[in-house]
Design goal:
Shape: globular
CATH superfamily: HUPs
Helix content: 40-55%
Oligomer: single chain
Strand content: 5-15%
Number of helices: 6
Number of strands: 5
Strand order of the largest sheet: 3-2-1-4-5
CATH class: Alpha Beta
Low-confidence stretches: none
Distance between the termini: 45 Å
Largest sheet: 5 strands, parallel
CATH topology: Rossmann fold
Order of helices and strands: EHEHEHHEHEH
């Protein structure tokens, strides 16, 4: 079975994505989400990701020391760049996380990558595809496209039934719903 590095944004989005990939690929789940704010939310999502991957017996990989533990620095390094970008904060966020996924895939010798960002009907699907295909070409990797949006809520509900945390916003400070 071929290996795939799956950028995983959270446990709820990973459920539907993994269900579509697991028959064809040996999945390694990769955690890289410096957009998640605040630190408590970041830690809760990461802990839930670890628990869910452990339950599924999926190998994990993560980039450590990615959290910026100073709110002003976080805003300067993350939000200011994202908001100032011509293509918008979501585009910047997708690009940053998918570039890091490609770097990790190459370092692990894994020729294929994908992302759980494709699962959510709330994400900008076409932007994710455009960015991922560009990054794959630049890095000599294969971007594996799947469309789990039709079964997104099945995955979210399965995670909730397990008693695992399911967040109420995408992740960045600007996406927090009041």
């Amino acid at each position: 079975m071929m290996k795939i590095l799956l950028h995983t944004c959270c446990a709820p989005c990973s459920a539907s994505t993994i269900s579509l990939l697991k028959e064809k690929y040996d999945i390694v789940s990769f955690w890289y989400n410096p957009n998640i704010y605040p630190l408590g939310e970041y830690n809760l999502r990461k802990k839930t990701w670890h628990e869910y991957m452990s339950f599924l017996k999926i190998e994990t990989s993560e980039k450590s020391a990615e959290w910026i533990d100073d709110e002003k620095l976080y805003e300067h390094l993350w939000l200011d760049k994202a908001v100032a970008g011509q293509k918008g904060r979501c585009f910047f966020c997708y690009e940053k996380r998918l570039e890091e996924t490609a770097i990790r895939a190459k370092s692990l010798g894994i020729p294929n990558f994908s992302t759980t960002l494709l699962a959510s009907p709330y994400q900008k699907h076409e932007d994710i595809i455009l960015i991922a295909n560009d990054i794959a070409e630049k890095n000599g990797l294969n971007f594996i496209y799947i469309d789990p949006r039709k079964i997104f809520y099945n995955g979210v509900n399965s995670v909730k039934k397990m008693g695992l945390y399911s967040q109420k916003y995408c992740g960045c400070k600007l996406s927090i719903r009041k």
